[in-house]
Design a protein that fits this description.
alpha/beta, about 425 residues, globular, homodimer, 4-stranded parallel sheet
Chain lengths: ~425, ~425
Amino acid sequence: MSELKKMGERAAEASYGLSAMLAPEKNKALRLAAEALLNNKESIIEANRADIENALANGIKGALIDRLTLDEKRIEGMADGLLQVASLPDPVGETVEGKTLPNGLVIYKRRVPMGVIGIIYEARPNVTADAFGLCFKSGNAVILRGGKEAINSNKMIVDIMRKALKENGYNEDCLQLVENTDRSSAEEMMRLNGYIDVLIPRGGAGLIRTVVENSTVPVIETGTGNCHVYVDKSADLESAVKIVINAKTQRPGVCNACESLLVHKDIADLFIPMVSEALKEKDVEIRGDEKVCSLVSGSVKADETDWGCEFLDYIISARVIENTDEAIAHIRRYGTKHSECIVTEDYREAQKFLDRVDAAAVYVNASTRFTDGGEFGLGAEIGISTQKLHARGPMGLKELTTTKYMIYGNGQIR
Amino acid sequence: MSELKKMGERAAEASYGLSAMLAPEKNKALRLAAEALLNNKESIIEANRADIENALANGIKGALIDRLTLDEKRIEGMADGLLQVASLPDPVGETVEGKTLPNGLVIYKRRVPMGVIGIIYEARPNVTADAFGLCFKSGNAVILRGGKEAINSNKMIVDIMRKALKENGYNEDCLQLVENTDRSSAEEMMRLNGYIDVLIPRGGAGLIRTVVENSTVPVIETGTGNCHVYVDKSADLESAVKIVINAKTQRPGVCNACESLLVHKDIADLFIPMVSEALKEKDVEIRGDEKVCSLVSGSVKADETDWGCEFLDYIISARVIENTDEAIAHIRRYGTKHSECIVTEDYREAQKFLDRVDAAAVYVNASTRFTDGGEFGLGAEIGISTQKLHARGPMGLKELTTTKYMIYGNGQIR
């Protein structure tokens, strides 16, 4: 039996115990894990230093090094995250619906844990603690498979939390880390049906595509967002500029950032210079259609790939369109069904856009950056689902559970 | 572009219109389709005759021929099914939850169609009309890929319903049939990401396994049920006999039929002769452990594979166990997480079994045969999900939908 299957068996055993654990006991474990992280900051920073040295030696630099780096403040952030999850309501045990059938059978649909969750992720080592917290609170054992860049940090963080669990009488196999970071271990995880109930990839588009294409274990697809802001002819233009700037630049590297701007033709001459000035102040490159280029000096002509591109950078594509219908058609063609926004003062256009755009989140007069578990009041999130099965949009604790029917009879037969 | 991708594009276009269609208009289409089937019984029976002749020529016989056969009554059943779906409430447009955030954003989570559903199924041609009805009512376009045995029947049924749609101004591409029944067409469907939003296999364990293992499109796994009835020492033994007989023999070929009987050791000497007599009356073969074999003349010794086997036949495995914990452990090891039952008068044992058995449906004192969309009051079902993502247990109209967040703002930015 492979090492991963053995991990899967241990995880199943741990999840069986965890599934019956009540909230106070789970919350206590999360607080102990948080405390252990705070008590071992130095060991974590030391392990992290080894990762950074390896990364630098391998020519990695800039933002990637920043994402990999753990300092005291980030470790405190990880511990705070665990405490915050401890403070959230427990989704397990909720009765979702219930009824009595005409034959007297009483049926309850109860929320229960999934069982074993696999998470494949990339460089950020703080995901390690976050993912554990959410999975544990929702009653699931987790098998984590991080990237090789963060392996020393991940091992240390997992060791510290497992030790805290074990010393306090919890089954430490609720949390396991795949230490083999070869491609082969990720591939085996993707085919571990019967051991892993659901697999969640967290990372770039390439990772997510690989998991979706190769996994036979059910996957929740997260992430890719080619989000549009459509500025209708009736828009409050000052508000529209603020929304575009916020959606594009408040944090350009994330999936709910705006990548493409659509502007109604009737206001193009007025609005495009306004917004391009504001974008230029933030050093955003504009890739426009002919009309946009004619209005904005220094803008680059967009080609077909730009319309479909998730830049994750200080770049925005921009196009002048006829009306809301054309905006909707453009989004149908190029969007990734993540977050889409119309800026308008017109009731009919607002309703049409909300009804007809197919996405996890559709906005009127607000930044697409709000598509987030914390912002939506879920308390925390494991990712943003861009698929239609199971969960759509930000996923919190509830989305890490399933249900089971519990049926009370008194001898009924068919 | 492949024929299937073209079908996918037409389905996407049709689903876009269908997603905005209100219930009365959808119900009218379903009634028209039902009427068309009734008006064309003879053509359907004629096409079906060709399928039966081919099947007989290929050496197919018995139950399979019966499943393939359409007569007037079965066609009326198909039409009735469509009318019944027309009479069910429309799941689309329901507001699942809603709230106002502290920043004034108003968020609604609304139920919307999936988009395009693919269904891969085997010989029974009545699935063709059933699946169309459920997908259409829930606002989804459907691409059907039936088995080669029923291809003439399926083509005729689909042609008749498409014609009814078209003549009445509906987009007939809401319903499309893959006419190529080679393995290659099923394989291509499994990889049609971007065209098919969800794939549902309906059929035997082999078909389902193939789809789960090969599909990159999200799949809802249906079907396999190795269901247990555990008779506790406190059980009402007469009721227990009725439940076992019903669960095993009322319809042995379906996934919610009982395949395995577990009996508490304290009542084995009394109960096993009672139940074996009743089972023998129904010509059920018993494959037992040593103790069962010692009590039942003519029973066969069960081997390891029998405990895990979904017989779908007049065969039951039977085992004497120590207590409820051992029953739960046995089910954890051999069960398929479909439907499990305890027969007991003991409160603690009942609650323990309900809490600790991980399955789509867990019963106290009732036949496992109730795990069914119709019985659960869903009105109709597209299948019984045995996975934990999205839907678990019988799936009705609601399970063919997803949700989207609709957010009303007034200029909010982060």
